[in-house]
């Protein structure tokens, strides 16, 4: 996972609250067997409407999503984060997130920053007045800058640290790899092993 | 739930530990600090085609390796057909998942039991059958019914796809500590009452959320008297009470089941293993965070009437009246369930007529289950218009059953005898209910649409499944005795 410090890019104003994971990625896309390539699945139902905000040409290549409250509620599918990442988003800002979604985001390198309702409104107005304007999200200072305006966002210290270090769950565990090696060396020899395969017929 | 009584205090400080705590402590790689999870070593990782593809893909993207192929094993079960298994799988999604598993296992050196292989079958039947599931180990699988393996005194946890990837890469999992709950089943089961009835009664008592955050330990006289198959049935459904896992302390029954199995320890290793296994039982005087007590003497065959496994009642009872339910959420859930199930409050359960009987799934598809059902139906004829599907849990179970002539008993009765797999337990392969079709099923989930869109499921034991197939209405072997044709 890449280390996260600042992101500068186009922001999409998504003036909707209670966006659940089924809207972020409809269930039909969950049948795939890959971890990537979900960009077409993001907001698939809404994107059929040419006027849906993400479809506007000013917002192409966006990296920041500014959403209403309770973004990412609903079923725990990790695909919701994958779809946002694959589409190109590095940051989602919202006044409140679904808990599981927020947890999944931190693990997949997506910054879920909490902003006040008032700041969400301010940012929406700014971006809508000048579509395609770039803003800068600074994880070190926990700020969003656009033109002369700076607003703060919240993120818990642990998730912030992980994003700054670029550690996914596995990376985090592998920092203790020496401990795992030590533990493995103490395991009893008679513990089950799947290889080499034995079958009852070949036993005796 | 109110029915879960918290006991005084966990035995902290006394040095006395429960089974679950012992297994956990034994696998502690690092102890979590300041609210971070413990890192737990995983002894056995089971894979199947549904939850593994993206984990393999994640591994590949991050250029990581599979740390311990020798502690990993895969089988094909959820998507596989139970007829024409030599033909290509018709459904494209299913076929893609199976083909992806085959490719991934070849690439990463994972042992795979494919359709047609003698060890192929439901992942939770295969592990114990090979002797890989052993007391005191940690087992994970990207499947909620991994709890099955707890019957051996293993800590067996169902995990999600990203955790599957984590175990692949590190052979460990960061896990939060758990609470312990004793489910003490005293007394003796009456003839005709089985392990399935115990667990359905437990879930009806504590509710589908009653076990949340807990590892359940089943203990007491009635549990000790159960075979390994019966213990697996009970542990299998722990997840339906919301629990993280279910366990039974190993004893002579466990050792007898394991001895001589392909991957069980041998010779001096066997002795060393048994010595460890004998230390696992909960210490005398150790306490649990909660306890539930069940009287086996009073249990009757149990069936579900609703759309979650907690909505169950004794077979001699009736469909409950939602108006009698105090809790508002449960009341509206019951109302919705009755509407979906097309049942009237007050209807005696025994008057409910079914279209289909399904004998199978990781809950009840082992040889013992098939044998018990076969004994009931032997020499009888299936109820007119009813269809019965018998699906062994693994290819080896099928072969064993055939060696005993069970297949012929089922076929003579008028049932279908299928190849191994998850089959009608879930609507993911060709074996599905039609909308409105009513099924007595030995599986573990009666959710709306679980066995096919619009299908209606009553969860039952293999004995009730067999008696129902004879009479056409929900029945137990007790009813056959009353019919005078035993
Ligand atoms: S039999 Fe049913 S519950 Fe068991 S693993 Fe298969 S689908 Fe899951």
From TrEMBL, chain A:
Annotated EC: 4.2.1.33
Residue span(s) of domain Aconitase A/isopropylmalate dehydratase small subunit swivel: 1-115
Biochemical pathway: Amino-acid biosynthesis; L-leucine biosynthesis; L-leucine from 3-methyl-2-oxobutanoate: step 2/4
Any Gene Ontology CC annotation: 3-isopropylmalate dehydratase complex
Catalysed reactions listed for this entry: (2R,3S)-3-isopropylmalate = (2S)-2-isopropylmalate
Domain of life: Bacteria
Keyword Oxidoreductase in annotation: no
Molecular function as annotated in GO: 3-isopropylmalate dehydratase activity
KW Lyase (keyword) present: yes
Ranges in a coiled coil: none
Alphabetized UniProt keyword annotations: Amino-acid biosynthesis, Branched-chain amino acid biosynthesis, Leucine biosynthesis, Lyase
Group of enzyme by EC: lyase
Gene Ontology BP annotations: L-leucine biosynthetic process
Summary of subunit composition and partner proteins: Heterodimer of LeuC and LeuD.
NCBIfam families: leuD, PRK01641.1
Purpose: Catalyzes the isomerization between 2-isopropylmalate and 3-isopropylmalate, via the formation of 2-isopropylmaleate.
Family stated for the protein in its record: Belongs to the LeuD family. LeuD type 1 subfamily.
Protein name (record): 3-isopropylmalate dehydratase small subunit
Gene name of this polypeptide: leuD
UniProtKB/TrEMBL annotation, chain B:
Pathway: Amino-acid biosynthesis; L-leucine biosynthesis; L-leucine from 3-methyl-2-oxobutanoate: step 2/4
Gene: leuC
SUPFAM superfamilies recorded: Aconitase iron-sulfur domain
Gene3D superfamilies for this protein: Aconitase, domain 3
Subunit structure: Heterodimer of LeuC and LeuD.
Aconitase/3-isopropylmalate dehydratase large subunit alpha/beta/alpha domain sequence ranges: 21-472
PROSITE patterns named in the record: ACONITASE_1 (PS00450), ACONITASE_2 (PS01244)
An MF annotation (GO) of this entry: 4 iron, 4 sulfur cluster binding
Stated name of the protein: 3-isopropylmalate dehydratase large subunit
Cofactor mode of binding and number, as noted: Binds 1 [4Fe-4S] cluster per subunit.
Keyword hit for NADP: no
